[in-house]
Design brief:
The protein is about 40% helix and about 20% strand. By secondary structure, the protein is α+β, with helices and mostly antiparallel strands. It has a four-stranded antiparallel sheet with strand order 1-2-4-3.
Length: about 100
């Protein structure tokens, strides 16, 4: 398999209010393996359109709801909001950990 530069490994998910199924094309290894698994498990809902093993590329049709879930899975995770008590406790833990590192 020819390695692509990270900025060349893109994922495109196409759907609109009227489009079902959605179309997804990706060079993302994790998403590509999930798509292959879904296609083999539920061929009535998932359809492989094109695949290129040399570049790790896959193009498929998937149910619109699944495309929305895939898009959510690919976006960066939001940080959890901490309460003031949790923030203070974590700061104390971090300070303690840093002190242990310095003395080690």
């Amino acid at each position: 398999m020819t390695a692509l530069h990270p900025d060349e490994r893109e994922t495109i998910i196409r759907f609109d209010e009227t489009m079902n199924p959605a179309k997804i094309e990706t060079h993302n290894k994790t998403l590509a393996s999930c798509l292959k698994k879904w296609i083999s498990e539920r061929p009535e809902d998932y359809k492989l359109i094109r695949e290129d093993d040399e570049y790790g590329y896959i193009y498929a049709e998937i149910p619109r709801k699944r495309a929305i879930a895939a898009a959510k899975a690919l976006r960066p995770a939001k940080g959890r909001k901490l309460t003031e008590e949790e923030r203070v406790a974590r700061a104390a833990q971090l300070k303690e950990w840093r002190e242990k590192i310095k003395t080690a």
